[in-house]
Write a structure and sequence with these properties.
- By secondary structure, the protein is α+β, with helices and mostly antiparallel strands.
- The protein contains six helices and 18 strands.
- A hairpin with a 6-residue loop joins strand 2 and strand 3.
- Helix 1 crosses helix 5.
- 41% of the residues are buried.
- The structure holds zinc ion.
- Zinc ion binds next to helix 1 and helix 5.
Amino acid sequence: MRTTIRSSVAIEGIGLHKGKPAKVVFRPAEGATGLRFLSPLFGDPLPALLSNVAGTVRGTNLTDGRSTIYTVEHLLSAAAGLGIDDLDIELTGEEPPAGDGSALPFASALYKAGFREKPGQERKSLQLKGRLEMRKGDVAYLAQPAAKGVFFKLTYDYPHQLVGRQTLEFALSPEEYLARVAPARTFGFSHELEALKKAGLALGGSLDNAVVITGTEILAKGGLRFADEFVRHKLLDLIGDLALTGLPLKDVYIEAERSGHAANVNFAKLLLEKAYL
Ligand SMILES: [Zn+2]
């Protein structure tokens, strides 16, 4: 059975890249319409699907061919991580509020709104028959059928003395997602952040919504939430990008090393191509 939320819920803040006021309203969806965006920018609702991906520079962006919305991956991650199939996502600006840089504001709002199953609406899911691999340089993905459940193993390796190699193994469920993945914040290196701001990106970026790594220290408001917060955020992003297949994963094991948005989207395409529904 397909799932939506019980009641509408709104979140306000500022957008990460444009630094402008931003508001999102999550609304229950009656039909089997998937995750989709409603915005004054678009004539029709824009489904969160791979075919609508505009680009993956510092985030995942969607377009209807004329207008673009930016950095939607944390919001999609929250919906997919909680197992929500159908959701109307109303945006007032070009991007959702950055919140604290994690998916927690979205996930806890959705969780509090409550879930509602929709009798008569069949839930299709993405399953695999065999093993699947994708590799480019030191970026690697693997997927294979699993007995029961959705499992991830992520490795993040950064040649920085303060981060180094982090590995995370995770079995997906709404509660585990909310507790262990949603709170992991986005992170950036201070030299990158300066370059981004010069390029007109990350204008809303600050220690309120990102963990910043300098040459000698990790700047995190309130300290790191997990010792391995970085790799947890990589999983958060991956779950959000895989939601662009339009299908929930079922009985699959996924491994990723040095994942990023562009590669995530390519991997999602491959999964969809090889999946049986
Ligand atoms: Zn992210």
